[in-house]
Amino acid sequence: MAKLLFLQNLEYEFLGPMYISSMVKVRHECSLAVGSAAGDFASVMETFKPDVVAFSIMTGSHRWSLNIARVLKAKYNVLTLFGGAHPTFFPEFIDEEGVDVICRGEGEDATLDLLDALDAGKDFSGIGNLYVKQKSGITRNPVRTLNKELDVYPFPDRELYKELGPGTDRSVRNIITSRGCMFHCSFCFEDSIRELYKDKGQHVRVRSIGKVIEELRELKEKHGVRTVYFCDDVFGINRKWLYEFLDVYKKEIGLDFLCLVRADIMCSDENYAVKLKEAGCKSVFFGIESGSERLRNSVLNKNLKDKDIYGAARMLHKAGLPFRTYNIVGLPDETLEDAFNTVKMNIAIKADYPWCSIFSPYPRTALTLYAQQKGYLSRDFSPDAISGSFFIDSQLKLPDIRRIENLHKFFQTAVLAPWTLPLVRMLIKLPPNLMFRLWFGIIYFYVFLKSEKRSFFKTLGFALRSYRHLLEK
């Protein structure tokens, strides 16, 4: 059997590696290690002796993974495999030194085929979804047809992250009930995924209620889960499926849960929030993005009206459900007052857990292309120029961008304590500084803790280990 080793630098459970691990463990071995430098992986490389070292990466983390892969490949002569968003949308990543194979799109079947071929000593250059670099050149294979039946995939391998240890809060676990999103927000890669899989099957797919309940029962009985986080792009996009699921969930699972929704979908049915609450929902998350309806719909293509946001908030308050809002400042075409209007909208709807980022221009998304066309961003902006965090600064050239960056640091403060707004207006005139980032870190930690029902000490440890760059920049 072949051996696959996932490497990452965050002490966090990602569903992608877990799904792949459960798929390949039918015939092969799979393990995972967490570290920050190549030397941190010396022990597992020498004891596990992997045939393939794999990285599931976003744009931004690709630089770290590439550096690690180069060192390990040179020392252990191991095959390197990269999957996730970055190689999917930037397939030229295959040209980088240290990269042997990239996987575009969904990776379960492709990774299993790769390990099968390695185990049998066969050529693997023709496997769908994979770009393969060999001495003879690079083979770029098209993506395979999407599997319409998600139920055929085994449940995520929760044991993959057993090495995280007691310092990681695992009482809240992620689960998905569907894949794909039907919306077309300009800041998202979803349209690019649709184009990648054009004529390759149904984009939005939903798991059966029975299979989801079976996985949840396993989580509850074997893994000590206290809270479930449904991290679908939009949870229960099919209302008939959702209401049937919630009835079964309440009877057979009965755990607290969190979920992501859309305000307009919630507004379409007065019972939506009530049914979530009755089934055990403890908090709902939804995107506002901007308090300017013009920006939200004309620039972000969110297709979401102010009245829907206010209506959803009213329903949630009536049902007794606290909610987290997702917001972005530093958007193309945004003024300082537009950003303040986003704060004011969150105040008006009494958002319990406001969350805010600074717009990060991911290359090849529609919004980044728009920013480049308007002259807010260099035409040759590349993935390597992406900031390590969307909580620090902006790369756009906007008239009030430094004040908008500062407003971001006080966004949550102003929403939770509206009386501070006059003070915030004064403070943001100062140059960006370490004290502002420190204050943001404290309030962000508090809001995250409350909204996701996490353990204080374990979450604090994770925050200190993972977000040192907020203080180091």
- Could you say how many structural domains there are in total? 2
Classify the fold: give the CATH topology of the largest domain: pyruvate-formate lyase- activating enzyme
Low-confidence stretches: 469-473
Largest sheet: 7 strands, mixed
CATH C-level label of the largest domain: Alpha Beta
Textual characterization of the structure:
This protein is an alpha/beta fold. It folds into two domains: 3-140, Rossmann fold (3-Layer(aba) Sandwich), CATH 3.40.50.280; 166-472, tm_1862 like domain (pyruvate-formate lyase- activating enzyme, Alpha-Beta Horseshoe). The chain contains 19 helices and 15 strands. The protein has helices at residues 15-24, 42-48, 62-76, 85-89, 108-120, 190-196, 209-223, 239-252, 263-267, 272-279, 293-299, 306-319, 336-348, 366-373, 401-416, 421-427, 434-452, 456-466, 469-472, and strands at 3-8, 29-34, 52-56, 79-83, 101-103, 130-134, 137-140, 172-175, 178-179, 205-206, 227-230, 256-261, 281-289, 323-329, 353-358. α13 (336-348) packs parallel to α15 (401-416). The longest helix has 19 residues, at 434-452. Mean pLDDT is 92; it is low at 469-473.
